[in-house]
Amino acid sequence: MTHFEENVKQAGNQKGVRVLYDKGAASQANSEALKAQKLRDGIMRKKPKGKQMSHWNKLRNKAISKRRFVVERTFGTLKRTY
């Protein structure tokens, strides 16, 4: 079991919730792990080597990063403060 799968299982039993994750977790196995838990895939997509990233994947990553930014900024502030 991977670190990602452990985190997904700890997230609980909230069907239909979108799990936001960075590009480091972008893999077919992780997407399938989310699908198996009936969670929505919010993993950012990586650019294929030697190719351009599709317009839709750029928009998807932008939308995910806008939501993640708020959470990451809050965690950073808490970490610096305490």
Describe this structure as you would to a colleague.
This protein is 54% helix and 10% strand. The protein starts with a helix and ends with a helix. The chain has helices at residues 3-10, 28-36, 55-81; strands at residues 18-21, 40-43. It has 3 helices and 2 strands; from the N terminus they run αβαβα. With 82 residues, the chain is mainly alpha-helical. A two-stranded parallel ribbon has the order 1-2. The protein is globular. The chain has one domain.
Quick gist of this model?
With 82 residues, the chain is mainly alpha-helical. The protein is built from three helices and two strands; from the N terminus they run αβαβα.
Write the layout of secondary structure elements.
Blueprint: H1 3-10, E1 18-21, H2 28-36, E2 40-43, H3 55-81
Parallel strand pairs: 1-2
